[in-house]
Amino acid sequence: MSNKKVRTRFAPSPTGFLHIGSLRTALFAHLLAKEFDGEMILRLEDTDQKRYVEGSEEKLYNTLDRLGFKFDEGPRIGGDYGPYIQSQRKKIYNKYIKRLLDEQKVYHCFCSPERLQKMREKQQAEKLSPRYDRCCRNLSAEEVVKKINSGEKFVVRQKMPLEGEVIVNDELRGEIKFQASELEDHVLIKSDGMPTYQFALIVDDHLMEISHVIRGEEWIPSFPKNILLYKDFGWEPPKFIHIPLTLNKGGGKLSKRQGDVAVEDYLKKGYLVEALINFCALLGWHPKGDNEILTLDDLEKMFKYKNMNTSPAIFDIEKLDYFNGYYIRKMDLDKLVEIINPYLANNIKKTSDKNKQTDEFIRNVVSTEQERLKKLSEIGELTEFFFVDKLNYPKDMLIWKKQKDEDCKKNLEIIKNILEKISENEWTKKSIENIIIKYLKDNDLKVGDYLWPTRVALTGKKQSPGPFEVAFVLGKEESLEKIQDAVDLF
Ligand code: GLU
């Protein structure tokens, strides 16, 4: 490696949301910068006005903040290489395109959209791949001036080699060869004067002294054009790392329609940043050992970009759920209570009981689910029963296996009697459990015959945390009332 400072960049376009694939790109750019004690910059690629969505910059910055990415330079923090928003760099692009025009490495193209459309249709009919036919490539300087002076609209196109091959080098894949015949004289400056991604990218990465470009594999087709532009300018290109595509489990492309791709949606559903980061890191890279639970801190220590894979990564939501559950279980309960609070708002609204709006009650409720939660957003439905006065469930749900109605009723009454004798001071999960289990053991009774009806009476659900825990959280008075409600169903 040369002794140039390592600088990576994350260059999202403000399209209204952060794609989960972009989070992965940002993460790898961050890890690569860390690997070499380098810098990471944020650059907003907003030259495509058609894709622009109002207000999306702020949303993007907020999301990046929530994810905890720290940039060394960027639109909000500035830096020595700004501006970091492409639409504010028009003058710079003009200067550099002028240079290429003067050196005749690029050319003005005056073809109208209608002509291009016809050309494409003809190529399609002839089963040729659609490609600009280079109609304007050989216009004389006089013709060009005349057309510009008469107000004709134009774009600027790159002159691609007409024959031979172009060989480019990807850090993970090695040499990639392209035939000149596959390459198009693509547009560098659009008719509105804005550069295309292909042009702005080169100028910016060069001027911002980016040493490593990490981007998705979908950009490989434009890779030779990028490298040729570096050549046209006489600049040394950065190292390019194309990370593999992320496919869904069926092997198809991840698309907005096939489930969520927006990071914001994942955060809204209650996926933790730790889980998203851990999950994304494994889409294209793997640690040496078997342990896949890795925090950002761990990743920063272990990541070597040369160990990244090139085979497609599979987006397995169950794995993300697994990581999320893991990080929820590991989280300090107070922290969990704090971040899960918004998801409990609807439940809290359902009760007029002031005791159920206290921090202590909420904390106890959350603790009953910490072990089982996969997403924070599940907490609302899972714990609703804690907040309602009268549960609504069919009597049959109380029946354990082939139990007779009268036995179920009798067992509920027995449990109620036992609970009644436990003093308020003794009302803890452990003592409720010890007292009931001792009774069942001493009398040689079957656990399911008693605990299933009790649990359903307290929760109204087939699945829930255990009866001792729920009884503890509900408190003595309400637990007795709920068991009585169950008895009254017979
Ligand atoms: N602005 C591009 C996008 O959002 C980024 C591509 C790159 O990283 O070079 O897709």
Structure report:
- There is one protein chain.
- This protein has 490 residues and is mainly alpha-helical.
- The chain has five domains: 7-75 and 202-247, HUPs (Rossmann fold, 3-Layer(aba) Sandwich), CATH 3.40.50.620; 93-189, Glutamyl-tRNA Synthetase, domain 3 (Alpha-Beta Complex); 263-329, Glutamyl-trna Synthetase, Domain 2 (Glutamyl-tRNA Synthetase, domain 2, Orthogonal Bundle), CATH 1.10.1160; 333-384; 395-487, Arc Repressor Mutant, subunit A, CATH 1.10.10.
- It is 45% helix and 9% strand.
- It is built from 19 helices and eleven strands.
- The strands form five sheets. It has a three-stranded antiparallel β-sheet with strand order 3-4-7. Strands 1-2 form a two-stranded parallel sheet. A two-stranded antiparallel sheet has the order 5-6.
- The longest helix has 18 residues, at 333-350.
- Residues 11-13, 45, 201, 215 line the site of glutamic acid.
Order of helices and strands: EHEHHEHHEEEEHEHEEHHHEHHHHHHHHH
> What is the general shape?
elongated
Query: CATH superfamily name of the largest domain?
Result: HUPs
In which order are the strands of the major sheet placed?
A: 3-4-7
Number of helices: 19
Mean of residue pLDDT values: 94
List the quaternary state of the chains.
single chain
**Extended strand count:** 11
Helix content percent band? 40-55%
Query: Would you identify the regions where 5 or more consecutive residues have pLDDT less than 50?
Result: none
